């Protein structure tokens, strides 16, 4: 973590606090902490040249869509706004919206023998999307009872990494490679706060949560909701090939079951992070380069 300096360090830690503040009690008992910290983060990022006015406008538009939808009583308006939220959130998370110059954290680092070098960015756009979606769609837990609700999901939380890593080893896409590189803390904190939170807020909070609501009372509603969100999550990893799509879909089922069983997004985030962390620490990362 000591490699972060200057404006990159300032934006990194402000953005990290913005994510963590989703779980803080409101300031003064009334004002949520996350909008204050996110606004400060974006202001500093603009000053550092990482975010331009077009990027700020896109984030404000997404926040407005989420805010209006939350307060709308019209089914049609809520459906249209949800469509707009999904399209804009995906465009931002996939870095298709201009106005962001995400700084490099790691460049061309060889993590494992026989694997492609790893490059990691501080994705301000994706992280900001995760904060907004988590705040409006996932109701982060701020009471002890919210965290106690995770108990029924613990078998799924612990079993999912075992199943996914075993599948990865059997598929031949990775090999055993225990390691602890010096940049491990930076990699893991970045992965947890800026990747796992954002992806779970979208796939489990927006997609799976929306389908569960739409299919409430249907016999196979939960299975359909978890299945659709998991398949979409798998497709999102198509860059790693067919094996990665299958493994990501399998992992997504675990994340979805954890969220559904507990009723908490935190269970999905924790399961996702355990899979990613153990994959990074114990096997080839990211994947073996196929000859």
From TrEMBL:
Residue ranges crossing the lipid bilayer per the database entry: 7-24, 36-64, 76-95, 153-176, 223-255, 267-288
Organism expressing this protein natively: Pseudoduganella armeniaca
UniProt xrefs under Pfam families: Rce1-like
Record-annotated CAAX prenyl protease 2/Lysostaphin resistance protein A-like domain positions: 183-278
Protein name: CPBP family intramembrane metalloprotease
Single GO molecular function: metallopeptidase activity
Keywords: Hydrolase, Membrane, Metalloprotease, Protease, Transmembrane, Transmembrane helix
Biological processes annotated in GO: CAAX-box protein maturation; proteolysis
UniProt KW Translocase keyword: no
